[in-house]
Amino acid sequence: MSALDEYDECLAELREQVCKRCIERQPEMPPCAPRGKPCGIEMHLRDMIDICRTTDSALIDPYIERLHDSICAHCEYKDKSTCPCPLDYLLQLAVEAVETVERRRAAQAVQATSSFGS
What we know:
60% helix; 5 helices; mainly alpha
């Protein structure tokens, strides 16, 4: 599976599990950016996925720390009065969405391996 497919799959899962709960969501969204609404998930998708893949904790605190260190610290909105990012309050759902995709891929890989060996 190509990296683009992987990101598309994660983005689809994030939109399903997270975007529908975003308080900034407008009708006909997502996607938000093409409609002039910046979105932290869309802006920082690759970094968000990397945080989920490289952090392993039953607690959300390590994910929050990584979010602030890896994404927020370098975001163009960090010193502005408004932040378009739902990740601060929807981070747990975002982590669950990415982990859902990772588990699904792992199960598919195991199935493909066992089918190949048959």
